[in-house]
Amino acid sequence: MKPLKVLLCAYACRPDKGSEPSVGWNVAREMVKYHEVWVLTRTNNSTAIEAELQQHPLSKLHFVYCDLPKWVQWWERDSWEVHIRYYLWQIEAHATALNLHREIGFDLVHHVTYGRYCSPSFLAFLPLPFIWGPVGGGESAPYPFWQDFGFRGRMYERLRDLSRWVGERDPLVQITAKQCAAAIATTSETSTRLKTLGVKQIQMIVGQTGINQEELERLKMLEIRSSEQPIRFLSLGRLLHWKGFHLGIRAFAEAQLNEAEYWIVGEGSQRQILQKLVQDLNISHCVRFFGELPREQALSILGNCDVLVHPSLHDFSPTVCLEAMAAGRPIICFDLGGPSVQITDETGVKIAAHTPKQAVQDMAIAMQLLAHNWEMRVSMGQAGQRRVSEFYQWETKGQFLAQLYEQVTKKDPSCLQLLSHD
After folding, report:
1. Longest C-alpha distance within the chain, in Å?
2. Is residue 173 pLDDT above 70, yes or no?
3. Number of DSSP helices (H) and strands (E) in the chain, helices first
């Protein structure tokens, strides 16, 4: 196929970060293997991007930086203000993109980050084939679990539901949905909401995030701990109510595993609540809080643990699960959202999430099962490494997107009948 001139919109885009910044960077890095790519992103990403390009130049990859006026740039103190600022940024991004298109003449525009199905992309208004995603955000914490959230947590969930309700009725979101030649969904919940918005072509992809070849090889080098050592569980992430760490702690206490340990890496508003829960359950001697750590140290901690416990209630594409699988560690998670897609019965244990009591009991049983079966842990870890190699390498995702680009630019609806990337 003739190389295209592609414009990527990546509000979050950095080579030195995980999560969505990593998505923006890695999509750009993969697509430049096939096409000439311009990336529209925020100015505050420029230092990290330019430093990386100095060390590893990519001649067909160009970055264009734009931002809101300086008097608005301080306004990003919490998650709700971030979303408002992101919405406003897209006005500036659209004006910049339109001028670029007049100068360069793009063949395709692809909105990559942020990946929320209920936020519009102003680049959908360009007179170009438009791809939206990967997007998520259609996932919800099951209502029975709200009882553990406290007032602030319940308010957060209500506001989150309200923001999605408003977003789905936003005319700009509806136009984004109708204008896109294809949308890429990360979960079945998000796919259902995209259909409701009127998206005609929806492609499923196994998660928004990925692992590149270098990371995969490095994580594979982490040694599996001996069967003679007591099992050590790990939870890694922000200590927020919807991450469900309180459920993991309760399950660990209920499992009553002699000499077992539970390590928790991360920082957040729930830390004191979780520490008090540990004290109340009388397990302070075997639960350790590390706080927030640099990524390299966090991966070192992963290498010193046996099982990742990821009890999140509405993640749509957690990178930590991919890193754990790449490191050969089985995962215990809920059968919800992104982890439900990422994890299979061969790579971990997925727990049904009906009520907190049931979920804790079933998670405790899973902990006991893995604690007493080292061979199962090794087998699941090996299956996880194979799954990451097959589906989650950025190189594989790049091939999927390159195929999608080709079929979208053919302007033939019959060409969009792609197989699900799963």
Report:
1. 68
2. yes
3. 16, 13
